[in-house]
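name: query_chain
kind: protein
chains: 1
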Amino acid sequence: MGQDLKRLKRIGWGVRAVFALGIAASLAGNVLHAADNVISQAISAWSPVALLLAVELISRIPSRRGALSAVRLGATAVIAGIAAWVSYWHMVGVATRYGEADSSAYLLPFSVDGLIVVASISLVEIGGRIRTRTDAAEPAPVVESAPAAAEVTASEAPAAPVAVADSTPVPAVKKMPAKRVTPRPASAEKVAKAAAKLPGATVAEIAAKAGVSVSTARRHLPARRVTDASPSAPVPAETPALIAA
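structure:
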């Protein structure tokens, strides 16, 4: 496929060179027949140039729709007919001026115009073949069908294996009763805070600060604190020795 495509491209360039040679001959005949000024020469040269451009367009740009392709080919045929008619009579005049016989002068332009027609048709044909080979050589786009194949409905999916329950009896775990924690009474916290704020106070002062009774404060205070700081602690009796003194 690759070698065939390269061969067609080489042939295409050869056909394009032949077509350019025929256009150059027609262009030279038109310019030589025109008056010796730039405007006349440009007008005479326009028809071969227009045919060259038209053939290049239809050979390089493909048409996908039949109606548009027919219109384009029809317009190119009209341009080719105009160029052939103008070029024929210009070349007849040039051949006659430069000493050709009457029959030769009238037949010579057919060789130029016929070469242009054959080369233009061949150029269009070879361009179509090159486009066909190029399209065939291009790899087709890969369509990813994995997601579609991965979609399996619940009914089509294989059923999951059902786990068989183990018949071995599981020994019962004896639950230990939760240990009941007796919350610390709020009065104890109040007495502790009041004792911390009043380190040298008596039990009555601490009870008043905590908002509890003296007996409650005495119950929650440390024993040493109650012994040392309690105003109601019994006063030791005077010893006989001190009375005798």
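note: The chain has two domains: 2-137, 186-233.
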